Amino acid sequence: MIKKTKAQAGNHAAILVIIITGLLVLFVLSISPEEREKLLNDETTTNGEDPLFPGSTTLIRAVPGQVKYSPETEIIHEFSPFNLNAEVKGELIHTKNSMYLKNSAFEKITDTITFKINPETTNNILLNFNVEQSSGSLIIHLNGETIYNAPIRPGNSPPINIAPSLLRQENTLQFQVSGPGAAFWRYNHYTIKDINLYGDITDLTRSKATQVFNIATKEANELKASNIRYLPACKPETTKNLRVHINNFEIFSGIPDCEVFNTIQIPINYLYEGINDITFQIEEGRVLIDRAIIQNSLEKPYTLTYYFEVQDKYFNFVNDEYELKNNYETMLDITFPNNNQKRFELTINGKPISFNTARLRETRSMQFFLQPGTNSIQINPKSELTITEIRIRIREK
Question: To 5 degrees, how large is the angle CA 118–CA 123–CA 129?
Answer without folding.
Answer: 100
